[in-house]
Specification:
Elements (H helix, E strand, L loop, with lengths): L1 E4 L4 H12 L7 E4 L20 E4 L2 E4 L1 H12 L11 H24 L8 H21 L11 H15 L6 H4 L1 H11 L2 H4 L14
Parallel strand pairs: 1-2
Antiparallel strand pairs: 1-3, 3-4
Helix pairs in contact: 1-2, 1-5, 3-4, 3-5
The protein binds glutathione (GSH).
Amino acid sequence: MKLFYTPNSPYARICRITAMAAGLMDRIELDWVPLRTPDSPVIPHATLGRIPLLVDGDLALSEARHICAYLHQKAGTGPTVAAYGDWPAVAAEGHSLAFLDAITVWSRETRRSEEDRSAFMLAAEAERAERYLAHLDSTLVVPAAAPPLNFNTLCLVAALGMMRFYDLIPGWRAAYPTVAAWSDAYDAVPAIADTAPSQDALIPLTR
Ligand SMILES: N[C@@H](CCC(=O)N[C@@H](CS)C(=O)NCC(=O)O)C(=O)O
């Protein structure tokens, strides 16, 4: 299997954590690819050229959630996705993924040149994130032992990782202490520590 990724993509990070936690890294080749270039090696497999993309034989699987489910099935262990039918779990997953989407949109906006940035968008995303962090702070339970890894918790890990990496909410630890403690518990998991976003891998936003 081959996973096309970039080191700072939060969606690819979820897949990499899943692969590591499922013990599949010896069966997956990681290919760090450039994005938004017509000669991207992803395009022959999936014309949209987006990552993460998992290629296994003729199968080219996009969407972090699908890749997570596929890797779980391959390994018979590791992070899970919520089963359709378990609607509360599906709902929780959906909210966490939406939070990740929102943080991703916000961080991309902050990386545009100052004249290209939308003040409206920045303010709307800041308000949305603060609202959700307040919700998380009153509902998250800090794990007492090994933190459960699943698509839901990994979306939160990836979203909070982006939020911190781009310093979107200075002072968030003091404002949301339960979220901070939850995040610290997850950051101690080796696969999570090993996949944190890095300044060395930061590439300029192309468009
Ligand atoms: N819904 C997708 C989101 C994937 C995504 O946003 N990928 C970005 C990188 S983080 C991408 O491929 N951007 C390049 C492009 O749009 O050409 C998922 O859950 O995997």
